[in-house]
Amino acid sequence: MKPILVDTHAHLGHQAFAGELPAVLVRAWEAGLGWVLNVADDMVSAAAGAQLAAREPRLFASVGVHPHQARTWKEETREELAVLLRCPKVVAVGETGLDYHYGFSKPAVQRQVFREHLKLAKEHSLPVIIHAREADGDLLEILSTFAPLEGVVHCFWSSADIARRYLDLGLYLGVGGAVTFRNSGALRETLRELPLERLLLETDAPYLTPHPYRGRRNEPAMVSLVAIALAELFAIDPEEVRRCTSRNAARLFKVDQSLFC
Ligand code: NI
Q: What CATH class has 5-254?
């Protein structure tokens, strides 16, 4: 039997999946996924994700407020997140981080909300799921003040130097559909030099659909294409990519995946 695949980053609460989630999940299990981490981007998707994970044995949840939504953070949000973080199938804090590209929330607000997430992650001994876009410098500075900390920089797409600095902090790097894009040669060169033991597979569904399906909705089943691309990059068997990255995911998120093999 093939080793399982894990999608460590899907937004199943996105409206793109409305009414279609049962079929999406059937395709995921048929594609050989063992489990999926459903990542929230606001308090509505956080509460829904925690409830869904309680019902679906192979779904886990991460709860947090995406940097785009940082402006929606209220005084009571912290306690609301703390309540969700006590649910047994909630295994991470996020998606949080900094995004200076779009600027949907002011940078200072994003930094403050990011720090709140890191405090919660420490208090609950949970890993954090980090979104980084054009903000690696500030992210590294803030993260270093919270070290040691467990987590993943999802959809990693920066230089080899930045990769090393995240790895030095003990973080994992998430690899998604971008590794399959025709225009991502530089990213592939960077990833090739990194230890497979510190990489996680993800889709970021419904976004970042792998080649050759770009333009269509992404979904967890497509993480198999990411595994194949990574195997080509490392010149190893795709089964080794599955085995290693699923082990990495289980270690970081403390999931007993013997239940799903
Ligand atoms: Ni995401």
A: alpha beta
